[in-house]
Specification:
Largest interface: A-B, 86 and 90 residues
Helix content of chain A: 25-40%
Oligomer: heterodimer
Structural class of chain B: alpha/beta
Bound molecules: flavin-adenine dinucleotide, adenosine monophosphate
Structural class of chain A: alpha/beta
Number of strands of chain B: 18
Number of helices of chain B: 9
Number of helices of chain A: 6
Helix content of chain B: 25-40%
Shape of chain B: elongated
Distance between the termini of chain B: 48 Å
Strand content of chain A: 25-35%
């Protein structure tokens, strides 16, 4: 199998939001970065697919040169190749524009299976994987929590609010990965050494303009200060009173 | 302003509340609405939605998402609609990006407010799990968006002129089976009250205390912190937070949850937050409207009794 895992470099969960000088962006000063949480799962799913069915795993990102740090970690875990579609600020690119660029590269790689995270935790679009699958005309299953892969296709389970769906698909396919699908492995020293010498090419790409227009960015209104109503079970009447008479939700 | 196509999820002829919220959001802009309903019971559901008009997709069975998206995109094109909305549910999030891609338009996900600014739709949506709120519009031909669950008032029903259309059946994937979950159980995303437990509950064998409180409320769901889900005490579907579900119920009760930033990301927009924690310095108290410092094993039974009594009247 020729497998691709798409990963996005995003601010860590500890990054604090501060509105940028233009009022339309976030100030990134002091931020640290990581691969988006679900993309770790996507890479693991790709590596497991390769281990079971053979083939290669290419990890692909559209982002800045600095993303080579995250990509190198995935090479150390066992990915065969990694490529950067160079873009200084991938967060300001909308979902469709991102999907088009990734789609073109996935085609050029001749892949037949592509793993995505279900959502990237910087812009929370939850869109790029399904868009790429649609643009490619491939079978696409989103939010996958369990996967049984055979050389020609497979069965994926996805959780909805109302139950669990089992979806059958044939390759080529796009799978977007949810928590629970698999546990990302750690890299070991041998992998890290082997990854050191691997080249991570940076490529330009045909950029479709973003259609999303940012009018302004704000911080959410601060919650009004709450209070401790009391200690232990004895505080229950005070809580009931607050819920009934202040919050008026009982 | 052009009309808005809204995809409505339904079960046995009854529209899902989250979809009625999407329709409510569409109607609140003053636009004409075209509701599209699929699955068994689609016609019954469509005719009572209170949209300007409705289309029932018939004969599709368990619709594959790409076939459904194809039908929805075709309806948008044929009607000349300028917007498409779906609820940001598992199904809506699956279908909407596909509809967007087919229309060559981007998607604005999980919008929390929507209005028409002189005929142009403008919305707000969270970035970084709600650490920032962006006001955005779209220069695409069609404004494609999903509406966050519990963020909009649901549309009131009303009789709706409905046409039928044969659903596409040539999907690239096949829905092999759907295991419905026990119908009594609400999902954390849709419940008006969520009672969540964390590591402070000590073990899965104590979840009866969490469930009893939820039951006392009637319409309530049980949630969990990631620590508890990772420990295998609770299923993944219950996890609230940045890597779980984002919820915004009327009332969120966090029991034995420390309030890590990743947990807060999933519940901080709840209307009212109550925290029960034995550590007075736990960060969860910083976002809670009301807190009780105490042992969950003492507080929960007392609170359950009080809520049950209040619900009885
Ligand atoms: C990338 C990333 C993503 C993450 N995503 C999520 C996510 O989506 N959701 C999530 O929840 N977490 C997430 N986490 C984990 C998060 O950082 C915390 O580790 C987790 O939320 C802690 O769970 P907890 O509050 O149950 O446990 P703890 O932090 O151990 O807190 C237990 C609390 O219980 C209290 N307690 C103990 N005994 C009692 C008692 N008898 N009565 C009352 N209170 C008691 C303690 O005082 C303490 O405050 C993520 C972490 C990372 C790095
Ligand atoms: N800039 C990017 N580079 C590589 N992959 C991306 C990028 N943006 C999004 N993706 C992939 O698409 C998934 C969903 O992203 P999103 O739709 O932005 O939430 C991510 O988890 C990644 O797998």
């Amino acid at each position: 199998m020729n497998i691709v895992a798409a990963i996005k470099r995003v601010p860590t969960t500890e990054a604090t939001a501060k509105v940028g000088a233009d009022g339309k962006s976030l100030d990134q000063a002091g931020w640290q970065y990581m691969a988006s949480f679900y993309d770790e799962i996507a890479v693991e799913a790709a590596l497991q697919a390769k281990e079971k069915h053979g083939g290669t795993v290419t990890v692909l990102t559209l982002g800045p040169s600095d993303a080579s740090k995250e990509l190198r970690e995935f090479l150390a875990r066992g990915a065969d190749a990694a490529t950067i579609l160079k873009d200084a600020d991938p967060s300001s690119r909308d979902a469709l524009s991102t999907a088009k660029a990734l789609c073109a590269k996935i085609k050029a790689l001749g892949a037949d299976l592509a793993f995505f995270g279900k959502v990237a935790t910087d812009r929370d679009n939850a869109a790029v994987g399904a868009m790429v699958g649609t643009l490619l005309g491939w079978a696409t299953v989103t939010d996958v929590v369990a996967l049984e892969l055979s050389p020609a296709g497979g069965k994926a389970r996805r959780e909805t609010e109302h139950g669990v769906e089992t979806i059958e698909f044939a390759l080529p396919a796009v799978i977007t990965c949810s928590k629970g699908l698999c546990e990302p492995r750690r890299s070991n020293l041998k992998g890290i050494m082997a990854a050191k010498s691997k080249a991570i090419p940076e490529e330009s790409f045909e950029s479709a303009p973003s259609q999303q227009v940012v009018v302004k960015v704000e911080l959410p209104p601060a919650r009004k200060a709450g209070r401790i109503v009391g200690e232990g079970a004895g505080a229950v009447p005070a809580l009931m009173d607050a819920l009934k008479n202040e919050a008026k939700i009982l | 302003m052009g009309s808005i196509v809204v995809y409505i999820e339904q079960a046995s002829g009854a529209a899902r509340r989250a979809s009625l919220e999407a329709l409510g959001a569409a109607k609140s802009t003053g636009a004409e609405t075209i509701a599209v309903v699929g699955g068994e019971g689609a016609e019954t559901c469509a005719a009572a939605l209170g949209a300007t008009k409705a289309v029932a997709l018939v004969g599709g069975g368990a619709h594959s998402a790409d076939a459904l998206a194809k039908d929805l995109a075709a309806i948008v094109k044929e009607s000349g609609a300028t917007a498409f909305l779906a609820a940001a549910t598992a199904t809506g999030k699956d279908v909407a990006p596909r509809v967007a891609a087919l229309l060559d338009c981007t998607l604005l996900s999980d919008v929390t407010a929507l209005c028409s600014d002189g005929g142009k739709l403008v919305c707000t949506r969270p970035w970084m799990a709600g650490k920032a709120i962006a006001t955005v519009s779209s220069s695409a031909g069609v404004f494609v968006a999903t509406t966050r669950v519990n963020a909009f008032a649901p549309a009131q029903g009303g009789s709706t002129a409905t046409t039928t259309r044969a659903a596409s059946t040539d999907g690239k994937t096949k829905v092999a089976s759907i295991e419905a979950k026990a119908s009594a159980k609400l999902d954390v995303k849709e419940a008006p009250v969520v009672v969540s437990g964390g590591r402070g509950m000590k073990g899965p064998e104590h979840w009866g205390l969490i469930e009893n409180l939820a039951t006392a409320f009637g319409a309530a769901a049980t949630g969990a912190s990631r620590a508890v889900v990772d420990a295998g005490w609770r299923p993944h579907g219950e996890q609230v937070g940045q890597t779980g579900k984002t919820v915004a119920p009327q009332l969120y009760i966090a029991v034995g949850i420390s309030g890590a930033i990743q947990h807060l990301a999933g519940m901080r927009t709840s209307k009212v937050i109550v925290a029960i924690n034995k550590d007075a310095d736990a960060p969860i108290f910083k976002v809670a409207d009301y807190g009780i410092v105490g042992d969950a094993f003492e507080v929960l039974p007392a609170l359950t009794t009080a809520i049950a009594a209040a619900k009885k009247g």
